[in-house]
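User: what does the whole thing look like in 3D?
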Amino acid sequence: MSDLPVLGISPQLAARRRKDSMFRALCLAATLSGVALLAILLFSMMRSGVEFLSWDFLANFPSRFPEKAGIKSALAGTAWMMGLTALVAVPVGVAAAIYLEEYATKGRISRLIEVNIANLAGVPSIVYRLLGLAIFVRWMGLQRSVMAGSLTMSLLILPMIIIASREAIRAVPISLRTAAYAVGATRWQTVRFHVLPSALPGVLTGVILALSRAIGETAPLIMIGALTYVAFLPEGPMDEFTVLPIQIFNWASRPQADFHALAASGIIVLLAVLLVFNGTAAWIRHRFGGRNQ
Amino acid sequence: MMGNLAEKLTVEPRTERKSIHPRIDNAVLKAEEVVIRYSGEAAVKGVSLEIPEHRITAIIGPSGCGKSTFLRALNRMNEFIEGVTMEGRILYRGVDLYERGVDPVEVRRRIGMVFQKPNPFPKSIFENVVWGPGIHGTKKSERADLAERSLRQAGLWDEVKDRLDQSGLSLSGGQQQRLCIARALAMEPEILLMDEPCSALDPVSTGRIEDLLLELKERYSIIIVTHNMQQAARVSDLTAFFDSGHLVEYGETDQVFTRPRESRTEDYVTGRFG
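Assistant: Here's the predicted 3D structure for the full assembly of 567 residues, as structure tokens:
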């Protein structure tokens, strides 16, 4: 020990230092590659997609002629599907979260349910599409309707909504619940008037993020049979439909360059919708976050 | 550390339990051999005591002696804590609170509670007071009167009468705690349980709440758990001293503080431990 230089850099330490800076460079490169890829993607989309981006593009039905083609039916289909999906998945998901957090006694069964919900959130979407095909399209006879698509999509995002809602509900201080119980409130009254209002921002954020995942999903819908060429708007939940990602997929798989540009335009619209969703979620978090302590 | 010390200092098992109880003619609550366990581990180990009507009963004792756990058992608030089990009986005017068919919601309506940390609802001052009665069916037309009456009783009316629609959270800590008291009083309970209601408050706010307690005992029976022995001595009529889950001594406050029967009590009230 004593014959080593006190503050000098020993060869051993120098080697450690080198490794440290190499690792740092490696991590930086990894970070930058992600950002760079995203930038390149956005840039090339913008460049090729901006050509067809116009009011007509939003207002026209798809067409064999690229200059006349639009995404009206896909946009409408997406809106329909998001609406129905939210209508199904939100009440079920939030109710399940309330049950697990406020009513269920913590025991082996509730742990089993918890683990399974976490697992469900990781199930590949292609599995859901098979399930949706078997149950909703065939067994329930819903055919290739918006309803079948929405139900399948609900299954896909249900675990995400449950997990996010549970976290939001768990974050509500216990003291708020005891305050309500102490004046003789039932569990339901406590949940309805105190826990849910306080958890609402967190629940909404989770719901929006889950929906924004659903909006970009294609796999669960292809096999269910969302159509790729739809020249009409769905008028009810039992109508056939298409959605943005499928329309994009369809255009992108055509040989003509113009259709590739259309796909790029479609992607821009899809990204814009996503941005609005995520922006809303961020706004809600910012606006209501931390209001109750 | 504390636990070990407490173990060592614990007096030998008392054979004559009766001797530690004061004479109480008008008991409103009566605990019989209450044992409360957290996941099997006993926090309250066989406590029997009677709570008199229209008096203030203080429960004192070192941290972890089971006093808060015991207090929560008196209006079934332990039911919201996982793994808590109870043996023994708690009689409210002769009815066992834990009997089949007794609705905990009804129990808590008659036996109100104020907590250690002020916990107003994140709602308006007015809503804070009348929400409880509202869910029990108090008519909208009666709520304004009820709010005023309860806030007056809690000594808060003059400070908030012009801003009843402001959030309860906008008040100071002491005001919030009086709001919580008003919220409990609005239920028109018979008994008021207070779990260290002043521990988060400054001395001035504490003084106000203590004065308030002395007024309230005309109409309510009050049980207060406190860490603060001066507070117990100042406000209570009776004092129960808990240690390691046992009721060590129970008697008139005067007697407990000046002529304790148990050496354990003396050590605690004179500040030799705890």
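In plain terms: The two ends of chain A are 55 Å apart (CA to CA). Chain A has two domains: 11-49, 58-288.
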